[in-house]
Amino acid sequence: MISEFDLIAQFFTRPTRRASLGIGDDCALLTPSLGHQIAISCDMLVAGTHFFSDTDPRDLGHKSLAVNLSDLAAMGAKPIAFTLALALPAPDAAWLRPFSEGMFALADQHDCELIGGDTTRGPLNICITVFGEVAAGQALRRDHAQMGDDIWVSGTLGDARLALAGMRNELKLDPHTLSKAAARLHSPSPRVALGLALRGIAHAAIDISDGLAGDLKHILERSRLGATIEVDALPAGAMLSSQPMELRRQFILGGGDDYELCFTAPPSSRAAILDAANSTGTPVTRVGMIEQLPGLRLIDSMGSQVASSSGSFDHFLTK
Amino acid sequence: MISEFDLIAQFFTRPTRRASLGIGDDCALLTPSLGHQIAISCDMLVAGTHFFSDTDPRDLGHKSLAVNLSDLAAMGAKPIAFTLALALPAPDAAWLRPFSEGMFALADQHDCELIGGDTTRGPLNICITVFGEVAAGQALRRDHAQMGDDIWVSGTLGDARLALAGMRNELKLDPHTLSKAAARLHSPSPRVALGLALRGIAHAAIDISDGLAGDLKHILERSRLGATIEVDALPAGAMLSSQPMELRRQFILGGGDDYELCFTAPPSSRAAILDAANSTGTPVTRVGMIEQLPGLRLIDSMGSQVASSSGSFDHFLTK
Fold this sequence. Notes:
2 copies of one chain form a homodimer. With 319 residues, chain A is of the alpha+beta class. Helix content of chain A is 33%, strand content 25%. The first copy, chain A, contains 9 helices and 11 strands. Chain A has helices at residues 4-12, 57-75, 93-109, 159-167, 175-186, 192-197, 212-223, 245-254, 270-280; strands at residues 28-30, 36-46, 78-88, 113-121, 125-135, 150-154, 204-208, 226-230, 260-265, 284-291, 295-299. In chain A, the strands form 2 sheets. Chain A has a 6-stranded mixed β-sheet, with helices on both faces. Chain A is globular, with a radius of gyration of 20 Å.
């Protein structure tokens, strides 16, 4: 039986490049840059709740870190480091090797290093806490949207939810559609570069992990404002196009796991936002407007109100 | 069914006092003090591995944070904040209320605030990441022990392991002994004040979570030195006194969950250490010496070598 220390040494210990002290002491030590704040986010992924237990461990290593980097992106924070706590039913090198490779491949892309954590016996559970840096006062917060702001989203929405529907047999999908959609579900690209480029431009931002409608509501509630979204302007995932309109809207508005950014900015910043999108290679779409009247209203391209079930937009989803 | 957001609001959201931004955004924001490093540690506690699933939730809330604060203590770092990720089989207010009360009671003692985290459905799993501050260069590291240093331990050792033996029916204990010993197991007091007082005095420190012998070996390996411990000088837990000598030694050297500090310092600092102990109300005992020769040697009060099984000192323990 491989021990905890062997596990850490074999799969998770790499030379420390940025942290003042990495794995191997009671604590890691980070030395913050002068005038910067440390942004901290934490996500726990559980087998059976967040992923199927037969998920490719390489995808899972990528995704576990990606969902955390996405939170840094939504703050406009530059990734620095992360900790990994991992509960495993048994130490299994055939699982740990691809898991660690998937995780480190993404970590290296963002120059974000593993500085500590914990490994233990237990039902499969992956808990990552990520650390970023942002100049004091520059973070993109949820509570800073302003009346008259445009509402933007990055990339496209709904394909991750479509994959889930296929995997759960809620929908019958052809293998090509399922496989393309599943790539969005399993291997999201956190919008770190866009988040950094939006500092000083966007007023408020959030990452879309639970569905656009639900996540935008967090911005509205914390900013004490409302919004109207034009549903036909929303950028649908490529694999959604052959689905019926009602389901398309539902998955775009209520489907989670997209890990795109939703952000608000004044109309005077439209050119700056398109520059930020261009320079980071990230498509962005303007989808609505922040208003004084509380609540979220949906309109179609004719300006007619679209009915939505209160609360969740996703009638399937029961997580 | 209570939702994640309701859960967080009801049991875990309190006004933010120190952090620049607390619960409720994509990330929390900490603003480090000038010239200070951020010390970070992360521990995951799993039902069935680290605690019995019927453990009093108030004790569990205390202990989950205590084991993390103990890591800050071992670095000489001042607690600032923590994140909590919690997987629960079902949202259960009757469990969450005492759990959160136990956790916050200890957090308040150390002025350490909850700034974020995650709650999800899954087998019971508690993952806390804790943040402390320490002036750059002042942290008590494992790799800074020096030849000729005294080895010290705080408090007493072995009672937590004795309680575990009683609860597992490895030993028959009378109810009074079991209850007193179990208090050490379930409600450890992290030695934060002592850790802070030892900055600038101790060379190296570690907290004793896996047993003195195993944890001291981490200091020895990272400092590339060895040590001799006088086993009869080791401070035994009060409840161990009526146990046979062999078992006493075994539990003192190999029993985990004591959460005392083991630290090294030059003989010239003995008076300063006793001052630090006095001013923080923490008993400390000098138990051995750091030597050039690698490895850990045990002697009795007559100076005779005491045999020890290689590797683990705990023949019962199989975690």
